[in-house]
Amino acid sequence: MKRILVLLMLSAVLMSSCVSKKKYREMEAQYIKADKNYKKFKQNYTECKVEKAQLQSQLEALRTNNASLQKALDKCISLNQQGNVNISKLLEEIRSSNEYIQMLIKENKKKDSLNQVLKEQLTKSIADVDANDKDLDIKVQKGVVFISLSDKMLFKSGSTKINKDADRVLAKIAQILNAHPDYEILIVGNTDNVPIHTQCIKDNWDLSALRATAIARRLQKNFGVDPKRMTAGGRGEWNPKVPNDTPENRSVNRRTEIILLPKLDQFMKLMNQAAK
């Protein structure tokens, strides 16, 4: 419509000014070309606006993504710094643990050496006692010193009364015990599985406990062993060294054990050092 109006106005001007047809056609061609350029530029402008909007949207998305990446990077840096601190702390704990382990190894070797010396002293002390290996046995086992005495060396059958001859060996053992006050003393009675029941003794468990306490009292009253170091108890028939299937084996199982072990407070001191 706009083009028609322009042409009509142009025609009127030409007619009034007597413009030639050739000139008219040239001007019309120029107009058509200019109109095409206008439409083309208008379309390009519209496309540029759309492209600008798309680029703006992409820019916002990139900014958002960049912010997320920066946040993640900051977190990684923080975790890395924290990780370095944790690794340093772990290495320090490992170093401390290694030092403690070396200390324990050293203390254990020292304890084993002391136990071996104690065993040798006991063996020499009772060397003149008339007893065979089955009646009297001294050994170092699991970090402690075991002294095993058969019941026939100490008691009459089924009795808790200590034989007079037992004082000879108990005196020699007590002499070594008193010379090593850093050891606790555990006295444990053991029996075979032959049932026993008397007016004063209910069963083997009762018999083993009464025999252990009898030995503890004798060591205290007759030979001056500190009762605070001693613990006495019985295990009855429940801790046999060998099966109770022959008279000889049952004789082996009837025994009283005097066990020497490091004092509990020394052990707790080591444990407290480990916890620091």
Topology, element by element:
Layout: H1 2-17, H2 21-125, E1 136-141, E2 144-150, H3 151-154, H4 166-179, E3 183-190, H5 204-223, E4 230-234, H6 247-253, E5 255-262, H7 264-275
Parallel strand pairs: 3-4
Antiparallel strand pairs: 1-2, 2-5, 3-5
Helix pairs in contact: 4-5
Give a written overview of the molecule.
This protein is α+β, with helices and mostly antiparallel strands and 276 residues long. The chain has a domain of 161 residues: OmpA-like domain (60s Ribosomal Protein L30, Chain: A, 2-Layer Sandwich), CATH 3.30.1330.60. The protein has seven helices and five strands, in the order H-H-E-E-H-H-E-H-E-H-E-H. Helix 4 crosses helix 5. The mean pLDDT is 80.
